């Protein structure tokens, strides 16, 4: 049974001009996809196409002018706002694309520890900090005191420290050096091998192919094709959609 099932999801935004309601801007259209336990599914598509929005819709963190239809199920039951309030952070975690997701008034160590269910939150936080080469002094720093790369590593740490069942990693590694990128991707693999599902959102199919099991191709607001990575490593004749074929042809 899939761990996360998205059925016929649509998201649009109500637009206003000079206080008057205009037409709705539809960004996600009738999107259906699912993720099994133990799987890394990369959602690949161009910038501005609605990939972050998909992640935010799963987490139930959309702006007030968003209209949502369709269903999202986690572990067989609908993911309501009420359920999300219990699951967010521990069972379903986000590595946000925007660094603005960090609480500006909370020290880095506290942010990471707030996602840990275990008794020994400090131990878990220190283990993950060590993994991402974050010195112990970083614990006591506020977000405004962190460099871009350190902020990214704190965001990844916050998402992986609680060993969540579903991780939505939205462009998790921009600007990080390749050793840290490798470390982050191998943490996702490790979580998946222990039964979690990871959605790796990226515009870069090359990096997706190094770690994912499946590629969900996101085009014009929906997933037009979900293909196993092997299809991209072969001659590509198994790929069906023209945009998928274009991505495949553009591979080095
Ligand atoms: P991606 O992550 O694929 O680069 P996003 O999910 O960030 O794309 O954004 C998709 C589109 O959603 C954007 O082009 C933007 O026009 C629209 N959008 C996002 N938030 C809002 C909002 N609050 N109001 C209106 N449109 C929005
Ligand atoms: Mg995005």
TrEMBL record:
Record carries keyword Ligase: no
Record membrane topology: Peripheral membrane protein
Localization per record: Cell membrane
Domain of life: Bacteria
Name of the top EC class for this enzyme: translocase
Residue runs in coiled coils: none
Catalytic reaction list: Ni(2+)(out) + ATP + H2O = Ni(2+)(in) + ADP + phosphate + H(+)
Domain ABC transporter: 4-245
UniProt GO molecular function: ATP binding
The enzyme's E.C. designation: 7.2.2.11
Signal peptide coordinates: none
Keywords for this protein: ATP-binding, Cell membrane, Ion transport, Membrane, Nickel, Nickel transport, Nucleotide-binding, Translocase, Transport
Cell wall biogenesis/degradation in keyword set: no
Similarity remark: Belongs to the ABC transporter superfamily.
Subunit structure: The complex is composed of two ATP-binding proteins (NikD and NikE), two transmembrane proteins (NikB and NikC) and a solute-binding protein (NikA).
Protein name: Nickel import system ATP-binding protein NikD
Taxonomy of the source species: Bacteria, Bacillati, Bacillota, Bacilli, Bacillales
Included stretch of the parent chain: 1 to 252 of 307
